[in-house]
Amino acid sequence: MKRIAIVEDDVLMREELEAVLKKAGYETETVCNFEDAQTCLLDLSPDMILLDLNLPGVSGFQICRGIKQKTSIPVLVLTSRDQMKDELLALNLGADEYLTKPCRRERLLARISNVLKRYEGRANLLEGSGFLLDRLTYTLYIDGQSVILPKNQGKLLETFLMQEERMATKSDLCKALWGTDEFIDENALQVNLTRLKKTMAGLGMSMQIEPVRGVGHRLVEKGEDL
Questions:
Q1: 55 strand-pairing partners
Q2: Which of 31, 56, 193, 201 has its CA at a distance of 20 to 30 angstroms from the CA of residue 39?
Q3: DSSP letter assigned to residue 215
Q4: Beta bridge partners of 139
Q5: How many helices (H) and strands (E) does the chain have?
Q6: Helix-helix angle 186-202:151-162, to 10 degrees
Q7: Rounded distance, CA 98 to CA 88, Å?
């Protein structure tokens, strides 16, 4: 049974959504701690997130961006904001669907079903710009082809995709490679990073790894200012 997390501050709307989803055969989880919603959602790891945009203390846009930077969990935005600019922003941040309230029950359930079907088998996938990475096998899907990365390269790319703003410290990267940052081997770390950079360049990827002075490294779009 698929689990859907509801992020909605209107109590009556939240209860109505719960009832509709349960009647349709879904399990539901509700997130009411909006300022820490991203952490709660990552811990819950639902099959889908139903997200309002107008939330107290935090914007639904921020939650959507944060979730999509770290996971491939589908996000369906359900909001009273009916401006085209809001819809385009949400979609650009990674939202999979955008519906405005009030919304007919049949339409909502149909959109939920369609999104879930699109995501079948993608629970272990992390999304980057123009590519997907399978966290279990470190298979990289790009431009209609699949490439299995060497384990260390896969671990590094996974680490970047899991971090806020795609920024990873030396400590983050060392923990990914060796399970500890107690004895940081700068040489070995640079060797592994260089190998991943060569692989990404060879595949013509639109993202690249750049050093960030005093912090570590970041995965960025080519030409993006750090």
A1: 58
A2: 193
A3: T
A4: 148
A5: 8, 14
A6: 90
A7: 9
Taken in order 211, 213, 217, 223, is the CA torsion positive or negative? negative
Please check whether residue 131 is in contact with residue 205, taking contact to mean a CB–CB distance below 8 angstroms.
yes
Model pLDDT for residues 98-143, shown as the tens digit of each residue:
999 999 999 999 999 999 988 876 767 888 888 989 888 999 988 8
Q: Cβ distance 171 to 192 under 8 Å?
A: no
Residue-level pLDDT at 208: 94
Handedness of CA 179, 181, 183, 186 (dihedral sign): positive
Q: Where are the beta strands (DSSP E) in the chain?
A: 3-7, 27-30, 48-51, 54-55, 58-59, 75-79, 97-100, 125-128, 131-134, 139-142, 145-148, 167-169, 207-212, 216-221
Inter-residue contact 156 to 193 (CB < 8 Å): yes
Q: Which residue has the tokens 């846009």?
A: 61
Query: Do 94 and 64 contact (CB within 8 A), yes or no?
Result: yes
DSSP string, 24-67: TT-EEEE---GGGHHHHHHHH--SEEEE-SEETTEEHHHHHHHH
Whether this prediction's pTM lies above 0.70 is answered by no
Query: 20-53, pLDDT tens digit by residue?
Result: 999 999 999 999 999 899 999 989 989 999 999 9
Q: What is the largest CA-CA distance in the chain?
A: 59
pLDDT tens digits, 54-84: 999 899 999 998 888 777 789 999 999 999 9
